[in-house]
Design brief:
Alpha-Beta Plaits; alpha+beta; 5 strands; 186 residues; globular; 7 helices
């Protein structure tokens, strides 16, 4: 069972294309995916780091506060809990991107594996591991051989949020994040 989204909590969200398909066939696909992500997900979550690879993606997110979620919702009817206020934008995001992708490439059917996966970040140790995992993923899967090269091409970290200790609400010790950033030259 997937962890339910909770306000003021942090999640590793990830998914893969169906079968041997790619989610991104050209550079513009990446940009369009991030535009749709900003449109649908930024109102309900802060992004701390992410990695987009040709066939899958990873995000480290902080779900906004209950007050922010309620304020961002146009209509609260039909949502039994706050998790639904976050769940619906993800559904809209994936559907929007898949429909555009299908139109552009004259394909039919689902693009993403279902359901997408998410795991709650519940400790400092897991946070450190997941930041490394997200940034090392393109090397692990053979998309690139060098960590520095792949970070520039595939990954982003929101250093302003992390440096301002907005990252994980102080869950990670500032020195651990600083050590990680300097170790991997992010």
């Amino acid at each position: 069972m997937r962890d339910l989204f909770e306000p003021d909590c942090y999640f590793h969200v990830f998914n893969h294309a169906n079968g041997d398909e790619n989610l991104f066939r050209c550079r513009n696909n990446y940009f369009y995916f991030l535009e749709k992500y900003a449109e649908y997900i930024q109102p309900v979550a802060k992004t701390f780091c992410y990695c987009l690879m040709p066939n899958h993606f990873h995000f480290l997110l902080g779900i906004r506060s209950e007050e922010e979620l309620v304020r961002s919702a146009e209509n609260l009817t039909g949502f039994g809990n706050l998790s639904g206020l976050v769940e619906q934008p993800f559904s809209n995001f994936f559907n929007s991107y898949a429909k555009s992708f299908n139109r552009k490439y004259h394909r039919k059917g689902s693009l993403f594996n279902r359901p997408y996966k998410r795991k709650k970040v519940s400790s400092d140790d897991y946070l450190t591991k997941i930041i490394h995992y997200i940034h090392y993923n393109p090397v692990h899967h053979g998309f690139t051989t060098g960590l520095t090269v792949h970070i520039r091409r595939y990954c982003r970290i929101n250093l302003r949020c992390c440096a301002a200790r907005q990252c994980c609400n102080g869950l990670v010790a500032e020195k651990n994040l600083s050590n990680f950033i300097s170790r991997y030259r992010i």
